[in-house]
TrEMBL record:
Coiled coil: none annotated. SUPFAM superfamilies: NAD(P)-binding Rossmann-fold domains. PANTHER family: EPIMERASE-RELATED. The keyword RNA-binding does not apply. Keywords: NAD. It comes from Oscillatoriales cyanobacterium SpSt-418. Pfam families: Epimerase. This is NAD-dependent epimerase.
């Protein structure tokens, strides 16, 4: 039976992926340090959904634990590794930069070392649309330079891509980085704007709308993200004869790829708030504020490479995804 390791299994994307892989018949091993960056109760509630499965195992483990990570990869024979654990959030990186280095950089190297010494068929890891930083050309393409991050979180994700390429080049480790674009949906993260907006609107409190609402995001529904992850995972990159003198992922000779996973349809923030209002059946009271440090004006994913290589393109309409989130939100918070 195929054995898959998911790091960050108590997180939003990790939990959702574990559910899907268990449904598909795989054996899943999850790790997470269950930190208190956001509500630990939600993380434990996600795990409660997974633990009854006889093909799911869980271990509380921090990525920065070098010996623990190496032992994990030595003791278990994983076929695939999907690395979704990270210190998340753009604004929090202004307050606690060390958390991002420990988890997103040191922890990532610990995982790579484990995979190098105990070879796996494919290591897939979460990057982020935030790596595009100050880029103004849209849609964002994996062939674009991403040398100007505007947050430490983005810089650590760019570092992950660079370090992964080194391991692919030196050791033949197949790696693929996935640049996620504003993931939303049931069981989502309460530190994300859409979740905070829903909570405030339900309670009749004002919501903070940054840059006076003049922002766009390529909101991507969780099921679309998971479909993309699974398809990519099952297609490890092959070594190519491409010339590596053009500095972007498709031209590396290593077993290394980068893909965007986004809805390919940026939405105005005010339109997004309107969809939430409609699903909730309540109007929002808005507190308009300037743009915050680390924020970008717009994100927009070019997914042509993903569609070409996997046959998949995210398809869930915003209104449908928001409705499903609101239904889950009300169920979860009224238990």
């Amino acid at each position: 039976m195929t054995h898959i390791l998911i790091t960050g299994a108590a997180g939003f994307v990790g939990f959702s992926l574990a559910q899907r892989l268990l449904q598909d018949g795989y054996q899943v091993y999850g790790i997470d340090n269950i930190n208190d960056y956001y509500d630990v109760g939600l993380k434990k509630a996600r795990l409660d959904q997974l633990l009854p499965h006889d093909r799911f195992q869980f271990q509380m483990l921090d990525l920065s634990d070098r010996d623990g990570m190496l032992q994990l990869l030595e003791v278990n024979s994983f076929d695939y590794v999907v690395h979704l654990a990270a210190q998340a959030g753009v604004r929090y990186s202004l307050e606690n930069p060390w958390a991002y280095i420990d988890s997103n950089v040191t922890g990532f190297v610990n995982l790579l070392e484990g995979c190098r010494r105990n070879p796996v068929q494919h290591l897939v890891y979460a990057s982020s649309s935030s790596v595009y930083g100050a880029n103004t050309k849209t849609p964002f393409s994996t062939s674009d330079s991403v040398d100007y991050p505007v947050s430490l979180y983005a810089a650590t994700k760019k570092a992950n891509e660079l370090i992964a390429h080194t391991y692919s080049h030196l050791y033949g480790l197949p790696t693929t980085g996935l640049r996620f674009f504003t993931v939303y949906g049931p069981w989502g993260r309460p530190d994300m704007a859409y979740y905070k907006f829903a909570q405030a609107i339900e309670m009749g409190k004002p919501i903070d709308v940054y840059n006076f609402g003049k922002m766009q995001r390529d909101f991507t529904y969780i099921d679309d993200i998971i479909e993309g992850v699974v398809r990519v995972m099952l297609q490890p990159p092959k070594q190519t004869l491409a010339q590596a003198d053009v500095p972007h992922p498709p031209n590396s000779k290593a077993r290394y790829r980068i893909y965007n996973i986004g809805n390919n349809n940026p939405v105005e923030l005010m339109q997004f708030i309107g969809a939430l209002e409609q699903a909730l059946g309540k109007k929002a009271e808005m507190n308009f504020l300037p743009i915050q440090p680390g924020d970008v004006l717009a994100t927009y994913a070019d997914v042509d490479d993903l569609t070409r290589d996997t046959g998949f393109k995210p398809i869930t309409p915003l209104e449908e995804g928001i409705q499903k989130f609101v239904e889950w939100y009300r169920w979860y918070h009224r238990q």
